[in-house]
Specification:
By secondary structure, this protein is mostly beta strands. The chain contains no helices and 34 strands.
């Protein structure tokens, strides 16, 4: 038998599983050397200290460049030219590089890994112009892994912007009209423009003439409160502690007691038929006095009612000292409803309300504000800062009042006068746009 040797040519596949890697192959392992990371990952943010300034205010923009490393960021340039809506004032570039307010280029100092540099630019808000501030990194010595300088790509983290929405200053002007008028619980104006203010605690009525001179007009009125004048400039004065309403002539003399045995009267007003109305404070009612002196008690659902007023259609409005509610009593149906609930701070209520030339006005003693209300019940604060006491004149949205109470309007309805708790009469103008 012949032996035959058969030869086979075979191919083998060698598979090596690596279960761990180390740059140290001293133990016979497989060594893989990691590649070091390079470049500087820089980002940019823009912020402003006031997004809703008034025209003419100063605002400060802060540009912050952050380096996420790994290398120190060098040669970084940021460009941010202030648009037309601003006027450049100053910057702090001397402490964090340099800023050219003409070219808008900020030369940023070197930034170590994990740190940042910030630039503050202060500018005035102009009345017109572009208010969108844009900033972008336009140069860097080191490669950035996720953004490219100077490519105007807002989606990249080396570019940012912020927009300011300026507010036009209030057209309302508040000024001090007279001083040394204290505890004003009533205010009225005659056909010549003279004002009359009551002092509840001292039982007197002041007169403030058109030269702002203050004199005592009448005294010995127990709990002198609200007033209203008739067409002959006679004053009808509610006397809270005397429980009556008296009529004073133009010299301050008491002509007659119009009505007595009236519970806690404060405000006084006429309807078109010559009837007098007064609110009965802490009595859930108001009182009607007809021209013959007959009295009718009208219940209202406001215990601590503070004031009342009557519109051109003889509808009656009654305010609440403990809330922002003003109730309406319909002249035809006598139906009572909530006319408005003013947005006052918690615990604040209404001092006085008046009606003049199609609008209502209310003071809030606790809120330190004066509000204007249209015939639909839409209200706005026209003077004072909610919850802030003070005596600052100026625009209505920056002026401060202290516990404003009594209020009256000029004959044309374009000027208001209020008594502020610190002992002054304040004048308010510019609240009507028609």
């Amino acid at each position: 038998m012949k032996n035959v040797l058969k030869k086979f040519k075979s191919t083998f596949l060698l598979v090596i599983f690596i279960t761990s890697c180390s740059s140290d192959d001293s133990n016979g392992g497989v060594g893989i050397e990691p590649q070091p990371q390079t470049g500087s990952d820089i980002s940019l943010m823009v912020n402003v200290d006031n997004e809703s300034p008034y025209f003419g205010d100063n605002v400060t923009f802060t540009l912050t460049v952050t380096n996420l490393g790994p290398e120190t960021a060098t040669g970084v340039l940021v460009k941010s030219v202030l648009p037309s809506g601003y006027g450049y004032i100053s910057d702090n570039g001397s402490t964090n590089g340099t800023y050219d307010d003409v070219t808008g280029v900020w030369t940023v100092p070197d930034i170590s890994n994990g740190l940042n540099k910030a630039l503050n630019i202060t500018a005035t808000v102009n009345e017109t112009g572009d208010y969108n501030v844009i900033a972008e990194v336009i140069a860097s010595d080191k490669e950035d892994p996720d953004s490219e300088p100077n490519n105007n790509d807002i989606t990249e983290d080396d570019q940012d912007s912020v927009t300011v929405t300026p507010i036009a200053p209030s057209l309302v002007q508040v000024s001090t009209y007279a001083t040394s008028v204290f505890a004003g619980d009533g205010l009225a104006i005659d056909s010549s423009g003279n004002l009359y203010a009551t002092n509840y605690w001292n039982d007197i009525v002041y007169k403030i003439d058109t030269n702002q001179s203050v004199t005592i007009f009448s005294n010995n009125h127990d709990g002198a409160a609200g007033m209203v004048l008739d067409s002959n400039d006679n004053i009808y004065l509610a006397r809270y502690e005397a429980f009556d309403i008296v009529k004073l002539d133009s010299e301050g003399n008491t002509i007659e007691v119009v009505a007595n045995e009236i519970a806690a009267p404060i405000a006084v007003d006429f309807d078109s038929n010559g009837n007098i109305y007064t609110n009965n404070n802490v009595n859930n009612a108001i009182t009607k006095i007809d021209p013959q002196g007959n009295k009718t008690i009208i219940p209202v659902g406001i215990y601590n009612n503070s004031s009342l007023t009557i519109d051109d259609d003889d509808n009656i409005y009654v305010s609440d000292y403990n809330s922002g509610i003003i109730k309406k009593i319909d002249a035809i149906t006598n139906q009572q409803s909530t006319f408005v609930n003013l947005p006052l701070n918690n615990g604040s209520g209404i001092g006085f309300i008046i009606y003049s030339d199609g609008y209502f006005y209310a003071t809030s003693i606790g809120d330190n504000t004066v509000l204007m209300i249209d015939s639909d019940g839409t209200s706005e604060i026209i003077a004072g800062l909610q919850g802030v006491e003070g005596h600052t004149d100026g625009n209505g949205d920056v002026a401060t009042l202290t516990s404003p109470n009594a209020i009256v309007a000029s004959e044309d309805g374009r000027t208001l006068y209020i008594v502020s708790g610190e002992g002054s009469v304040r004048k308010i103008e510019g609240f009507r746009e028609d």
